[in-house]
Amino acid sequence: MLSRLQAYGDRLRSSLFFVPMLCVLAGIVVGEAMLYVDALVEGIDPRLTATVDSARTVLTTVAGATLTFAGIAFSVSLLLISLASSQFSPRVVHGMFRDPFNKRVMGLVIGTFTYCLVVLRAVRSSLEETGDAVVPSVSILLAVVLGIASILAIVAFINHAAHSMDVSKILHRVTEEALSQARAAWPDPEPESDPPVGTDEDTTLPVGAAAVRFDGYGWVQNVDYEQLLAALPSGTTARLETFAGQYAIQHTPLCHLFPPAPDPEAVATAVRAAVLVGETRTLQQDVAYGVRQLSDVALKAMSPGINDPTTAHDAISHLGTVLSDLLRRRPPARRLAGADGQVLLVPEATTHDQLVGLAFDEVRIASADQPTVLIYLLDVLHQVEQSLTDLVRPGAVASLRRQASMIREINEQADVLEPDRQRVRAAFARRYPD
């Protein structure tokens, strides 16, 4: 249940609707509260009072201006999302939706608009129904303050928006999110041992295991292992056939159970409830997604339409940062036990070797005819290996060296000038003299 709540919380953080909606409600509440305060306040400084006409003019002006500001904010946000998607990668867009500053600015201007509407309806002249003029001076003063704050917020928003398209800031944000998820999903390493990736552990089930199948399709966003174990009958062993970050196809196996459950439909429903499937891939439990995003930025930078090796270098450097942190951590256990003898096998867990391949395989192939990028790759691979020297990581080091060897081989086969080929050879020899 906690994992599902965290997933819903992640959706709310990615929503452009939630914070502005709260600010609209806040505008209504504050407006009503200020009208109540105005009814209690007497003897206001004449400099702060207003006539009915001036009050309506001020409120109408502030409301109209803030609504225009809101339109500008939404337009700029959509423009930035479009540019980031085309220039860097569609997968970095998800993180831009999570930018709290943008949502707060939108919330402020929309909340101010709502507040002005609430106060405006309370302004009445002596010629109207009640016969008494109502001019909530304190409420109008707050509307002016909120209007000025909205102007400053829009200026700050434009400044923030301009700087947010800096590729270094985008890569830094993706890296921070990936590192944060790595710390949450993978525990800290044991001091002097290679992380147990479970490659030799038997995860097979006897013949006759019953399959629980997906009843829908989409990206697996979260697996609540505790809830899944609790859904199994006592003494049941389940082998999970999916993982966070995999695309689920309808009617494909979600897991296999042995022995088969006495009430298969009820157990299947409970098991499916422990696996959250959604429309988009997210960083929830998916440590590989941050690596995928950075790798995509590097690939996009090397595409013929962009051809920006410097951006590729930046992305590869950030890849090294994320990969170094992940290789220092232990992947989650592949065998989990429940309180009543239930056992959950997780053979599809992400391994260190898979992460290294995901980070560098496609980038290496795409940069075959770009010696400068190949040298960047060798440099980052060497730095990541050096970051592991204080730990025993033979599996991770072997994967990194395998990548370096493939870079050397692809350089030998590439259609480049001999001086460029020699540059890559020399770079490899400096970093891997043995």
UniProtKB/TrEMBL annotation:
Keywords: Membrane, Transmembrane, Transmembrane helix. It comes from the Bacteria. The chain crosses the membrane at residues 12-37, 57-84, 105-123, 135-158. Coiled coil: none annotated. Pfam families: DUF2254 (PF10011). Residues 189-202 have a biased composition (Acidic residues). InterPro entries: DUF2254_membrane. This is DUF2254 domain-containing protein. It comes from Nocardioides dokdonensis FR1436.
